[in-house]
Design a protein that fits this description.
InterPro entries: DUF112_TM. By secondary structure, the protein is mainly alpha-helical. Helices cover about 75% and strands about 0% of the residues.
Length: about 500
């Protein structure tokens, strides 16, 4: 009851006219920031942070949280419409969102993304409200060994139960892991795989650069090839009847959205994890538990719903360790933490006692921002779909420009633009050879986290590899990962037995 009373007081703060206006403005701005390739929630919060001194601290953090939420919603827009992830958190949405748009189902994909984001955001805020303190303690029990085992489990969900060629999937994961090692060694500081001492490789390869290249440029090259004789316009339309049908279709996705919500919230709580690994893990699990895993990557609506629920749930989950322990769970929450320090607030357990108006005002604003985001997003879907109906020549040129801008903006280095071009050509060739691209991106995203957690464990345990299986949580994750990895072999062994049954 205390929680409900505190939450009611929080709503009194967040529903004041000024804060309500701030939520709507923040969500709308975040939606467009998230939809712009190369920007995303980190850039949006960083740009607006200096402006927050003109409003009270509670209103300032509500504005930044609303931008964060809106950017999570907006990242899916360009992923679905153009095949270019608006932010790293929306990379997994591209896998099935773009094929749905090419099949004339862009409206349904955008509805799925909006509703799934709302579900993920709502479940995670409820979890945040009810279990903030014990969940923060659980997150602290996750050490490097558990993080390594969890990442390993994410890889095996792609290998074990997917519909793609297993050998090709393993090859693409290994290629992604190799690309993840490019740059300076995190512990020794020595350069690795810098290709003849090229300075651009010292900072490593951004997964956003890879995703924009293989999905953005690669998609343009593939479309030019397939429509060279008759330039086409992507078939896209959306009526109110289809909007209602799309909302009803979301009912059958409850399993994917539930898994994505809880997984995303939990992964979001882990320091150094964040929404991008959460969305990729949720995609892998949705694919693994689907009755039709072979349809993933070809326009399965579950492939849109699962990562979108996870990345929104993770955005809320990452706020939890920041508020309760002062440990940011993602780059964006690190900026929010910096803002709180600037406003004279000290994150930690005492924050809930000393500043209840601020804390519960922020929590209640997450509910408000979630509702505002889904309403604004659904209202703008017809506009987004209409944009797809422009001539192919115009759309193609626009995609290329956005790819270049999206690659150049984060680092402002031409090196990344050339990398995008190279990855685009490579992605086009790999696609023609029927190699899956999702495991490549997954490995580049999770590779650094996997390497860091592995080496931290090895240092802490003095080289004892058994430490991964001796700890209960990491041992359980590794056991499930081993089962997933061996599943294709078990399936292969069962097939001859089935064929022999009639002859007997």
């Amino acid at each position: 009851m205390d929680v409900l009373a505190l939450l009611a007081d929080g709503f009194a703060t967040s529903l004041s006219p000024l804060n309500l206006l701030i939520v709507v403005l923040g969500v709308t701005a975040g939606l467009f920031i998230g939809a712009m390739p190369g920007l995303g929630s980190v850039n949006g919060v960083a740009i607006v942070l200096p402006l927050t001194f003109i409003v009270p601290p509670a209103s300032a953090i509500i504005l930044l949280a609303a931008i964060y939420y809106g950017a999570m919603y907006g990242g899916a827009v360009s992923s679905i419409l153009l095949g270019i992830p608006g932010a790293s958190t929306a990379v997994a949405t591209t896998f099935d969102g773009r094929p749905m748009a090419q099949q004339g189902r862009a409206g349904l994909a955008l509805i799925a993304a909006a509703v799934a984001s709302f579900v993920g955001g709502t479940i995670s805020v409820v979890l945040f409200t009810l279990f903030a303190s014990p969940l923060a303690d659980l997150a602290l029990a996750f050490g490097p060994a558990e993080e390594f085992a969890l990442v390993l489990l994410a890889f095996t969900t792609f290998v074990g139960l997917g519909g793609d060629d297993v050998l090709k999937t393993v090859v693409m994961i290994c290629l992604g892991l190799v690309l993840a090692t490019v740059g300076l060694d995190l512990i020794s500081g020595q350069p690795r795989l810098v290709f003849g001492d090229l300075p651009g490789f010292y900072s490593g390869i951004s997964f956003l650069v890879l995703a924009i290249g293989v999905y953005g440029i690669g998609e343009v090259l593939h479309t030019i090839e397939t429509s060279k004789t008759a330039p086409m316009v992507t078939p896209a339309k959306l009526t109110f009847r289809e909007l209602g049908a799309g909302l009803r279709e979301m009912n059958r996705l409850w399993k994917s959205m539930s898994i994505g919500s809880f997984l995303g919230f939990f992964v979001g709580m882990l320091p150094a994890a964040g929404a991008t690994p959460a969305s990729l893990m949720a995609y892998g699990i949705a694919r693994s538990t689907s009755k039709r895993p072979e349809t993933f990557g070809k326009g399965n609506i579950e492939g849109v719903a699962a990562p979108e629920t996870a990345n929104n749930a993770a955005s809320t989950g990452s706020l939890l360790p920041m508020l309760t322990l002062g440990i940011p769970g993602s780059p964006t929450t690190a900026l929010l933490l910096g803002g709180m320090v600037m406003w004279g607030l000290t994150p930690g357990p005492m924050l809930f006692i000393e500043q209840p108006d601020f804390v519960w005002g922020l929590i209640s604003s997450l509910y408000t921002a979630n509702v505002a985001a889904v309403v604004i997003n659904l209202a703008l879907i017809p506009l987004f779909v209409w944009a797809l109906r422009m001539p192919f020549t115009v759309l193609c040129a626009m995609v290329l420009v956005l790819c270049i801008v999206g690659g150049f903006a984060p680092s402002q280095k031409m090196h990344d633009v050339w990398l995008i071009a190279g990855f685009g050509i490579a992605g086009y060739i790999l696609r023609k050879a029927d190699y899956p691209l999702a495991p490549l991106v997954l490995a580049l995203v999770l590779g650094p986290l996997m390497e860091t957690s592995f080496r931290q464990t090895m240092i802490a345990e003095q080289g004892n590899l058994l430490a991964f299986v001796q700890r209960p949580l990491s041992g359980s994750f590794i056991a499930v990962a081993a089962l997933f990895f061996l599943l294709p072999l078990l399936k292969h062994l069962r097939r001859p037995a089935r064929r022999l049954e009639p002859a007997e």
